[in-house]
Amino acid sequence: MTKLLVLAMLGLKPMTGYEIKVMLEMNDAERWGGVLIGSIYNALKKLEREGYIEVASIESTGHRQKVIYQITEKGKAYEQDLIIEALEKSSVVYPTTLYSGVAFACKLQDEKAVCALEKQKKILEGEEKAIAAGYQAKLNAMQGEIPTLTQLAFDNMLEIVKVQLKFVNQAIQIIRKDENNSLN
After folding, report:
1. Cβ atoms 59, 3 nearer than 8 A
2. Rg value, the chain, Cα
3. Most distant CA pair in the chain, distance
4. Helix 2-12 crosses helix 40-49 at what angle (to 10 degrees)?
């Protein structure tokens, strides 16, 4: 995924690795793209070695040099292949760790299980806030005009978190109901 994002950024305009890093951070690519921002520089080196990008220019500022990369024709074709691959690949990911914990929560005291689920709930609420903040940053960066497919991606991310929150809340309710039934 890192290669696709780097090529897509360079498809917009020639950039330095730092500029790509800043743009991906601003767009919260670690969250929605599953990209570790630090991996950008390795991807740049590999893409250059493979002929997908090339050095457009080197600028000197003081004692530092800025390498500006641009995408090659070969890179544009590879970018298309990566986009198709990303669209075709299944992206269904189950929260297996959470499911395992819920499946065996009955082995815990109810209060411990509820406490752990409440922590999960806070994490999910934080994720919901982070998505909203990322959306707002994107909206500001795009001057209020987010492409329809980008909007769809944000909406889907938010919906996934809401479904997870619903699941966690239902698990808490079931545990509390079972706890109340065992007290009667």
Report:
1. no
2. 22
3. 77
4. 80
Considering the domain 2-88, what is its CATH architecture? Orthogonal Bundle (1.10)
Tokens 């009667």, located at residue: 184
Instruction: Report the candidate in 93, 90, 118, 94 with the shortest Cα–Cα distance to residue 105.
Output: 118
Could you read off the pLDDT of 5-19 as tens digits, one per residue?
899 989 989 999 999
What is the chain's mean pLDDT, rounded?
88
How far apart, in whole angstroms, are the C-alpha atoms of residue 71 and residue 142? 23
Q: Which strands make up the sheet holding 64-71, listed edge to edge? A: 15-16, 64-71, 53-61
**57-87 pLDDT tens trace:** 888 888 888 999 999 999 999 999 999 998 8
Tokens of 50: 């493979």
Q: Which amino acid is at 65?
A: Q
pTM of the model: 0.70
Q: Are strands 53-61 and 64-71 parallel, antiparallel or unpaired?
A: antiparallel
Residue range 127-179, pLDDT digits in tens: 999 888 888 887 887 788 888 988 898 899 899 999 999 999 999 999 998 76
Domain residue ranges of the chain, discontinuous segments joined by +: 2-88, 96-183
Q: Contact 14/78 with Cβ under 8 angstroms? A: no
